[in-house]
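task queued by scheduler; priority normal; single chain, no ligands, no partner chains; default sampling; output format set to structure tokens
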Amino acid sequence: VPLPASITVDHGTEFTSKSLDFWAWENKVLLDFTRPGKPTDNGLCESFNGRLRDECLNAHEFLSLEHAKTIIEAWRVDYNDHRPHGSLGMLTPSEYARPQQVSLPERAKF
């Protein structure tokens, strides 16, 4: 999977680490920081983060790291594969990301 040219992030500690900075530099990915106190600079990400927090992270008590991974993965699959999104023309993200299938005539049989 190709890496993006840039990633827009806020100033949270998870995005200001030396590890992320090194990874981005090593992979030639620009870290584009939002202006402090301006979550609207990255509204789509903030919307997703709010959904993840409200629908998954705040709705479960995780008993272990493995339990958390299982619950979060189930939420991710539902979010990407089963839930239509209005911003994507009522397609799921997986459907939207799929290349358009062009129906080609069947090959002639020799």
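post-processing summary
- Residues 65-82 form the longest helix (18 residues).
- The CA atoms of residues 41 and 98 lie 28 Å apart.
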